[in-house]
Design a protein that fits this description.
Blueprint (H helix, E strand, L loop, with lengths): L1 H19 L11 H4 L3 H8 L18 H7 L3 H4 L6 H5 L8 H4 L2 H6 L7 H5 L14 H7 L3 H14 L9
Helix pairs in contact: 3-11
The structure holds heme C (4 copies).
The site of one heme C (HEC) has 20 residues, from helix 4, helix 6, helix 9 and helix 10.
Protein name: Multiheme c-type cytochrome
Pfam family, one: Cytochrome_C7
InterPro entries: Cyt_c7-like, Multihaem_cyt_sf
Length: 168
Amino acid sequence: MRARGSWLLSFALALALSLSGAAVAADFLGPESCKGCHPAAYEAWMQSKHARAGDSLSETQQKDARCLSCHSPDQASQGVSHVTCETCHGGGQYYSPGYVMKDAELARLVGLVDPSEKACRNCHDASSPSLKPFNFVESLKAIDHWSPERTGKSARAENASPEPAKKK
Ligand code: HEC
Ligand code: HEC
Ligand code: HEC
Ligand code: HEC
């Protein structure tokens, strides 16, 4: 019962972390690791400027920690460039296994983050070059990758029959 064993391990980890009050310092797995299970979110993200944020920097600027802190904040520590899934949702090491992801509470206990307006403002602040002040509601619409994701989810739910699906 390998799956059950690893579930117990995650549960013990979650419990230990919540008792110690420690934040989860989980490794990043990279956006490709999310793609298999969240293809719609991945495609939408790929169309966004976040997916290419590091490319806006010149070669010299790509070595400048001041620029990287917003354009590619996890490059040095995690080897993952640009503003990626895990920059916003937290490192996926512990939450991305399917059996954890299906349990919304457990996933959050082991590091899944719901990005807040405050998190956006860490980067979209007075020192970013935009002439317009950051508008959270408008900006959220511009990075929407959850609507296609939810459409896919309800389609999956409707197609799910009580009988096990036949292999094609
Ligand atoms: C093995 C498949 C799998 C992988 C890999 C995976 N997920 Fe998930 N994820 C799921 C499932 C299943 C759900 C539950 C909702 C659903 O059915 O779509 C979910 C839910 C989520 C949610 C919504 C949680 C909620 O309760 O609202 C977020 C955010 C998320 N995943 C982000 C990620 C990110 C970021 C990565 C990559 C680091 C990732 N996932 C990798 C399968 C996966
Ligand atoms: C700039 C920050 C940011 C990045 C980058 C990002 N997300 Fe999100 N994501 C959000 C926010 C904010 C929400 C919640 C939006 C809402 O519910 O209004 C969200 C919601 C989701 C959901 C929830 C969908 C549901 O069913 O409720 C999934 C799944 C998800 N993101 C996966 C991903 C994946 C996979 C990537 C990378 C390919 C990614 N996200 C990149 C900020 C981000
Ligand atoms: C780690 C820093 C970081 C975080 C966190 C972040 N962003 Fe960004 N965002 C950027 C950078 C850098 C760019 C510019 C990318 C480029 O073009 O080089 C950008 C670009 C954008 C753009 C496109 C702006 C344009 O002029 O077209 C939108 C919209 C946006 N972000 C929304 C959000 C929202 C909403 C959140 C929070 C859920 C968020 N961002 C969180 C760094 C961040
Ligand atoms: C505090 C976070 C932050 C820092 C630090 C930062 N940027 Fe940005 N940068 C942004 C955001 C956010 C945007 C997107 C435009 C906007 O909404 O302000 C952006 C946009 C840009 C763009 C325009 C990209 C486009 O698509 O048109 C360039 C070029 C750029 N930044 C270069 C730099 C350089 C060079 C540095 C280092 C000297 C730097 N940035 C530091 C947040 C930051």
